[in-house]
Amino acid sequence: MTKGLRGALVVYDPEDPLKDLYDVDDVNTIWQVGDCLPSFEGWLEQRPRWHNTTIPLLAGYVATGIVPVSDSGTFNGIGRFQGGPEVPFHVVNVVQGKRYRFRIINTSARNVFTISVDSHNLTIIETDGNPTSPMTVNSIDMLAGQRYSVVVAANQPVDNYWINAPFVGGDPSRNLNQNATLSRAILRYQGAPAADPAAPMSLGPAGAELNALVEANLRPLVAAAAPEPDINITLNLVVIPPADSIFQTAGKAQWNVNNVSYLAPHTPTLVKILEGANSANDFNVTENTFILPANKIVQVIFPPSIDDEAHPFHLHANNFWLIKSNSSEEINTANPIKRDVAGVGSTGTIMRFSTANPGPWFFHCHIFWHFFAGLATVMASGLDDIRKEVHPTLQWDLECPLYDILPTDLQ
């Protein structure tokens, strides 16, 4: 959904406690899966097109309230769509006998990708930057914004193998040209011919062969109990159909958290804090800001909802203990994993985080369309500490005047 360039920022840990499990971890072992969306006109006419930008898609969303459905998926920026040119699939080169750490990132605006590699297992060793106890599976569902590191052993005969990355996201009947099976890449052993795999394209392991990741079964590398909470917050997610929305003249659906739909303020939240804001009353209601004391443990409860879709909620600048995953009814306070994006929705989710890191941290759905429709909050922690630690420069002071003189359509 970006208009321009994007890529992965990887901070390599020279003391990685799991480095003995793999031989290769470099720029060539980064996998980014994403979505390719049609133009608004093509989407309405069910004639998807390959290239697009955010603005016309948002215009279509505002005009109809209908979330666009992607044509296809991309793997490291490359992909095919139904009826389009047969561009070469991305190729991941490996050497037989070596073990590879693949860092997988779901960069999509909406889609849930299911990652697998024909004839190979995936050993998970990290979730969203947090080391985990190694767990071997052969299929991983990834929500938008989530990251996993997996170790893949190149232990099969020299050949070409499909890397499968099919996806779901929205009603495919709204894009009749969609073919999720085309979302894939090739794992190519050194010595194999430069050709597509002989095996037919599939959605990955199924039936008795399927050993899919269950998020609730993941454990941290070092077992540790989650701290008891000092503060409890319940967040209810509700969608208001266009007819009941403040956007009803435009037809756009509105998403609420606790009956508030987030709107970015004209004056940034951080600026308000630096200027002395101390309570929720100092912010716009539509900023949906929670004021939290420093150095406390906050428990956030997302109750079960009637929406079957898992909304990937992302907390900026913090990792949370995932006490209850949306994938299970189990409540685990003894040794939960930590991550920063987790699905919330049908069965309910519980997480805890520390407010030791001061700042106004965005907490939002990573589905672009839902975020745009207001599915977000701000967790503002340690306001006094923010004012002690943040010292604006002259350039900072010039930002608002420079912004204010911009034409309205650029603000």
Description:
The radius of gyration is 22 Å and the shape is globular. The protein has a six-stranded mixed sheet with strand order 2-1-4-9-6-7, with no helix packed on it. Strands 3, 5, 8, 10, 11 and 12 form a six-stranded mixed sheet that branches. A five-stranded mixed sheet has the order 13-17-22-19-20, with no helix packed on it. It has helices at residues 40-44, 54-64, 269-274, 368-372, 383-389, 394-404; strands at residues 30-36, 72-75, 91-94, 99-106, 112-117, 122-127, 130-137, 140-142, 147-153, 160-164, 167-168, 184-189, 231-234, 237-240, 254-257, 289-292, 297-302, 311-315, 320-324, 338-339, 341-344, 349-354, 359-365, 376-381. The two termini are 19 Å apart. It is mainly beta. 40% of the residues are buried.
CATH fold field value of the largest domain: Immunoglobulin-like
Oligomer: single chain
Specify the overall morphology: globular
Structural class determined from secondary elements: mainly beta
How would you state the average pLDDT, rounded? Answer: 90
Helical content class: 10-25%
Beta-strand content bin: 25-35%
Strand order of the largest sheet: 2-1-4-9-6-7
Overall number of structural domains: 2
What's the helix count? 6
pLDDT under 50 segments (min length 5)? 39-51, 244-250
* CATH class category of the largest domain: Mainly Beta
Question: Largest sheet, if any?
Answer: 6 strands, mixed
Radius of gyration: 22 Å
Amino-to-carboxy terminus distance: 19 Å
